[in-house]
Amino acid sequence: MGMIYAPPRPAVLRPARTVPARIEALDLVRLLAVVGMMSAHLLAPLALVPGASGPEAAAARVAHLLTEGTSSTLFAVVGGCSLVLASRRHLADGDRRGAVLAILVRGAVVTALGLLLELAPSPVMVVLVPFGLSMMLTAPLLLLRARVLVAVIAVLTAGGHPLAMAVPGPVEFGTVTLLSLDDPVGVLRGLVLTGQYPVITWIPYLLTGIVLMRAVLREQEAGRIRRLSLLALAGGAVTAAAAHLLPVLAAALGHASPGAWYTAATHTGTVADMLATGGIAVALIGLALRLLPPLHLLPTLHTVRGRIAQSLRAAGAAPLTVYVAHVLATGIAVVIAVLLSGGDLSSMPWYVAGAGILAVHLGGVFALGAVLAERGGRGPLEALLATVIRRAVRR
Most buried residue among 15, 47, 173, 183 by CB atoms closer than 10 A? Predict the structure, then answer.
């Protein structure tokens, strides 16, 4: 009896799970970070006005609680995620030099833009200089494995605050401008250790975003992105909650020392502060990826819901343009208020701080996003940045 051979079954072609060039959930989280910083600049200051009451004062207190320290941290962590997306084509082609150079140029342009923006008479503490410098210092670290980056994050998180406290000199509450470069020692000390946004704090945030986005790309290819997003959401939330409980536990045990590693006060760079703010950032990114995985795109412009969603996404994809416009508009409002009041700003007019001017800024952000979504283009500063990077890497 002869053997019967069945014909081979045709191979089943599974759809590719390649991550698109843009991750729309990341654009929306980036917009949330920028809106949070706007709220911290325009609404939250009213929470510090003695005797303030009413709905606006209540909203200001909520804004202060939700955005102080967390919005800038979210901006930094999302920035780290963006560095992975910006360099992955070069790394996939084996162009390690191009990957590092592209990030170096990106950081240099952002730093230069921050120095110029600081010349504007705005009360906003601009984050672009430390952000850009942190990108430049992080660029070569993109070539390292994730486990090495996790070790660097742990070392900087644990040692950054004690090192800053050990450095002699005052704590710099301002930011670096072209006018302050005549004191290079003070500028370097403030940028790296003792400023409002020191590099030793921002680099761990950027590296956290890099490690997270690498995991997102890997798990997306494996079809496990929903599991990762849930882990990021739960892990980040638990970490942030534990960090905020540390000072409560320490006080219960009789240890209540201001500035200690277990205090979670914002902008201090303590271990608890970085775990709390970093955990919130990771949780928000995880939530966004859970609601909008990389291959699940927003609705198109053909519906009202799609126009709103795409306008918000486009605004989130233009953070430099939005942020710079916000800082300049805030500065112009302050100058007008000073001129009209003769220098007396004992009471801030509505167009300097409050829910009204925040609504105006948010309306401008949405209008810009609507235009960019309709045209399918980048923000002006994002287009300029892309051109500079492209020309620099080609050489």
Answer: 47
